[in-house]
Amino acid sequence: MAMNSASPAKVSFKAQMLQAREDAIIQTASRLLAEKGFEAMTVDEVAASVGIAKASLYKHFSSKEDLAAAAMVRVMQRAQAYLRDLPPGAPMAQLRTVARWTMELKLRGEMPSLPSQNSTLRAKLIADTAYMDGLIDVSDCLGAWIEAAQAQGHINADLPAIAVLYTLYARACDPVLEFLKMGGQHDEEQIIRMVMASCFEGLAAR
Amino acid sequence: MAMNSASPAKVSFKAQMLQAREDAIIQTASRLLAEKGFEAMTVDEVAASVGIAKASLYKHFSSKEDLAAAAMVRVMQRAQAYLRDLPPGAPMAQLRTVARWTMELKLRGEMPSLPSQNSTLRAKLIADTAYMDGLIDVSDCLGAWIEAAQAQGHINADLPAIAVLYTLYARACDPVLEFLKMGGQHDEEQIIRMVMASCFEGLAAR
DNA sequence: GTCTATAGGAGGATAGAC
DNA sequence: GTCTATCCTCCTATAGAC
């Protein structure tokens, strides 16, 4: 294991290079997915933006859908990791923290939002176990916090937990964020504060 | 004007037929736009659904974008008419009524939501005076109600009116509505009540 | 203005050399 | 695995007869 370690090291290095390229592809796809959506994004564009030939991209991902799905899986894994590493806290505080984090991602253009519309990508993702496992994992975590926060009287207990969950998910693709950003009247911190307030405290005065 | 009225009547009838066909095209486009979005909708599909040849459709609208823009203009005009005919009432009540109406349209699949993403359609609409005039008209009306409701202490006065306006507009493309509908656990009235509650009262308990 | 038929082009995917 | 070059399908848009 000592003398013939050169070869394994070389292979590992090569594999790392491949992995790095694949990461670059996914990251670029993720960005374009966030910018223009699945239908408007072209594979040519992704390849050009990464700086490789389209055929090379197709060695990594067998279809445009696979590529997009990989990007979505990555976001989901990122969310899982974020939740796992989140310092303990009160359920309501955790939910607020996660909502804010989600909006920050969206504002930075790092949130490839799944088209709400009918899309072939949708079916692909539902059939993707990596994505679905991640989604269920995240939903379980958030769902537990939601129910705890409701039990503690911090979240409106009249709302079904599933409605609260979806409302939080929807913050990841909230057009209000980009509209306010386009307006240019407020910085990102102000925008997030406003949307956080309307989400948790509501539009009606308290 | 009495004797030669046959000819004008004939022309008017012909024009009515044309108008009716154009209405059918726009309505179909509107529905497909709501279902699949601009990019995924095809002109073949619209023509087939209306029951005419694609070339005939292109006699009415010179491009796919024009067609989609016409559908968006129609929705905007519908909103203008709705606001114009709304019985008078307290500003806060008006806002709630309009929000509910918007969600009902969305749930019925009659709300062709403008893609939030970068789209050629976006530029087209911004350049379309009919659309922009309608948008400004609607925004002025809602904006006045928002400020009045804030002055009366019914809407959170810490939120800029523009943020409240955008939040209301966003109800027209809220994915929470369709997610809850897909879940099948609640009827449309319940769904609307839940989203209305989370929008106005917020997720946090009161 | 409506049709059938087709041009024209974009974009997803592949062949085959290296 | 990466490239260049190419295929092929789908979709927007138009030509031309009626």
Q: What tags apply to this protein structure?
A:
homodimer, 206 residues, mainly alpha, Tetracycline Repressor, domain 2, 72% helix, globular, disordered N terminus, DNA-binding
Describe the structure.
- Two copies of one chain form a homodimer.
- Chain A is an all-alpha fold and 206 residues long.
- Chain A has a single domain, classed as Tetracycline Repressor, domain 2.
- Chain A has helices at 6-36, 43-50, 54-60, 64-85, 91-107, 120-127, 129-151, 161-170, 175-183, 188-200.
- In chain A, helix 7 (129-151) packs across helix 8 (161-170).
- The longest helix of chain A has 31 residues, at 6-36.
- Chains A and B meet through helix 8, helix 9 and helix 10 of A and helix 8, helix 9 and helix 10 of B.
- Chain A binds a DNA duplex (18 and 18 nucleotides) through helix 3.
Please give a quick description of this structure:
The first copy, chain A, has helices spanning 6-36, 43-50, 54-60, 64-85, 91-107, 120-127, 129-151, 161-170, 175-183, 188-200. Chain A has 206 residues and is mainly alpha-helical. Chain A is globular and about 55 Å long.
- Reading the helices and strands of chain A in chain order gives HHHHHHHHHH
The top-level CATH class of chain A is Mainly Alpha
Query: Which quaternary structure do these chains form?
Result: homodimer
Largest sheet of chain A: none
- Which pair of protein chains has the largest interface, and what are the residue counts? A-B, 50 and 50 residues
Number of domains of chain A: 1
The total count of helices of chain A amounts to 10
Instruction: Give the integer mean of the pLDDT values of chain A.
Output: 93
Q: Strand percentage of chain A, roughly?
A: under 5%
What ranges of chain A have pLDDT less than 50 throughout 5 or more consecutive residues?
1-7
